[in-house]
Amino acid sequence: MTETGKVREIKGNRIVIAPDKGAACFGCMHLECKKGRGLITTENPSALPLETGQRVEVELPGLSLLQQALAAFLPPILAFTMGFFLTRRLFPEAGEGAAAFAGVIFLFAAAFVVYRARKKSNVKSEFCITRVIS
Description:
Elements: E1 2-11, E2 14-19, H1 23-28, H2 31-34, E3 40-43, E4 55-59, H3 62-90, H4 96-120, E5 128-132
Antiparallel strand pairs: 1-2, 1-4, 2-3, 4-5
Helix pairs in contact: 3-4
């Protein structure tokens, strides 16, 4: 995920950026910047020469996105599989429909658990400044 915005504040290696409102903001529904009143806090690992008011591009590393996607999608998929095969094993007389229904119940239960865990834990998205636009 790539965002653009203006540098609002520089404190050592900590940079505060006011993101431009665009399609990327709609995609995450402002989940990241809501915490900081519409601001993104990041670091400058590349040691780019920054000044207040400059437009910059920030990006979430691909590994971070992959980890978040796996944490969101893998548990429900595994729960469906477990529910399906557990029903077939515990109730051999149950048909495919009953096993699929149990799998769907397990899927929704796991999705709810992932949702609640995500809400309670403060998963930190680590944006990095990739380039200075102007």
